[in-house]
From TrEMBL:
<dbReference type="InterPro" id="IPR009057">
    <property type="entry name" value="Homeodomain-like_sf"/>
</dbReference>
<dbReference type="GO" id="GO:0003700">
    <property type="term" value="F:DNA-binding transcription factor activity"/>
</dbReference>
<keyword id="KW-0804">Transcription</keyword>
<protein>
    <submittedName>
        <fullName>TetR/AcrR family transcriptional regulator</fullName>
    </submittedName>
</protein>
<dbReference type="Pfam" id="PF00440">
    <property type="entry name" value="TetR_N"/>
</dbReference>
<feature type="domain" description="HTH tetR-type">
    <location>
        <begin position="4"/>
        <end position="64"/>
    </location>
</feature>
<dbReference type="GO" id="GO:0000976">
    <property type="term" value="F:transcription cis-regulatory region binding"/>
</dbReference>
<feature type="DNA-binding region" description="H-T-H motif">
    <location>
        <begin position="27"/>
        <end position="46"/>
    </location>
</feature>
<dbReference type="InterPro" id="IPR036271">
    <property type="entry name" value="Tet_transcr_reg_TetR-rel_C_sf"/>
</dbReference>
<dbReference type="InterPro" id="IPR001647">
    <property type="entry name" value="HTH_TetR"/>
</dbReference>
<keyword id="KW-0805">Transcription regulation</keyword>
<dbReference type="InterPro" id="IPR050109">
    <property type="entry name" value="HTH-type_TetR-like_transc_reg"/>
</dbReference>
<keyword id="KW-0238">DNA-binding</keyword>
Amino acid sequence: MPVQQRRIQILETATVLIAERGFWGVTLRDVAIMCGITEAGVLHHFSSKAKLLIAVLEYRDEADFVALARLLGIERGDIERTPLPVSLRELCTALITRNAGQPEIVRLYSVLNAEALEPSHPAHAYFQDRETMALSLFRRAMPENDEAIHMSRQILAAMDGLQLRWLRTPDDVDLVPEWENFFERAFL
């Protein structure tokens, strides 16, 4: 198998396993067995379990940014612009729509985000940086004012909380309409 294909196989396999078991519940051996290679083969591509974890998260983030841009009808690079070329409502709806189609990835981030509250966790700094990035993304989609940072935090908290309810009881929570209803009442 070509090197890039093997790396992607390892990343996708690790994504599934970590989403199911959390970082601490997965070994390099587990990943290797699922990929049909040895632990040394995994380590050849990712020099440690911690580096594999960060690579999984970065890989998923890029896939999500590409999909988000497509949902918004903009170029991938436009997501970095200030201001964003879309409204806050369009951004939030696209994020929730994307997440509604990938519960296993939302579960991955939810589990890891909770685990990474511990400062010794290998993804602790990653999740701090990711939160800063998410808050910036929301702020760039709204007019700059003294309330923008507070509103950004509230949106992120609401998304996280609603997504947890959806993961726990997917038959009771229809994520996109539930988000739209909440956003309509809370932020407009």
